[in-house]
Amino acid sequence: MRAMAVATALLIAAVAASPAQASQADPKPDHVFADPGQRPAHGNVKDAPGATGTTGGKLESRILPIVHNCSPTLRIRAQEMTAAQLTATCASLANQDAYFHSVVKDSGPVANDYNTTLEVDVFNSSADYKAYAGKIYGIDTNNGGMYLEGDPAKTGNQPRFICYERTDVSPGWQIWNLNHEYTHYLDGRFDLYGDFSASQTTPTVWWGEGIAEYISYSYRGVTYASAVAEAGKHTYSLRTLFDTTYANSDVNRTYNWGYLAARYMVEKHPADVATVLGHYRTGNWTAARAFLTSLNYESDWNTWLTAVAAGT
What we know:
alpha/beta; 312 residues; 46% helix; six-stranded mixed sheet; 6 strands
């Protein structure tokens, strides 16, 4: 979920600095439904320390001693990362940045957004995250990580993605959630006017979570196996997915079906996406909602789902 508390169990190989490299791996499913610690965490943490620019002081400096600037707009703070891991992570995000803009075709940041620099805070493990992140940032840690957007209209606001490493997944070292959450940062800065609460005025989860999944998978060149399997079930109409909120959905509808809805619209109806984003970028949520609910692509949607499930 964009800004506030975000936790999606998304497998990201920071060592796979390019989509071509990532496609050679066979990662496990992104969402480990049996592990409640990997479920998304939602809630308003706009005033959490990590979102306002002040953090845990001495504890933070002691637990996250590594500070590495990827670029003027991206900084990594880590508990323990090698030079190679830092370099690969920076490269993965830099390449994704260009890919994101090629998909959403924005013309720059939305008005009054001053979230110019993202900080990625990386703990060594889920256990370290649970032990320290709550104390440093004042957040819930019963999840797979959090993105704190804060107030983008406030000069000096520091958006942060708080995450952890995993070594129990192929290819052996990954930052959990990395590319999905980076998309939330980019989407919030270039597509969605205002803060997280503003974007939830009308149902926008289909786009927010859907585009984060779509960018992550398509950029890395990885097949989203669980979403492809869901496509064959034809569980949801496209119109129903446009109604998705965090309150009325589960992990499957939010992420697998959000991905399918966003992918369908981006690949099949790019002009409509441009119209919707035009409204989102100015905070005209009502106009975007009216436009989306006027669309009727259900026959084509079901034909497309069948093709996706067949691998075409």
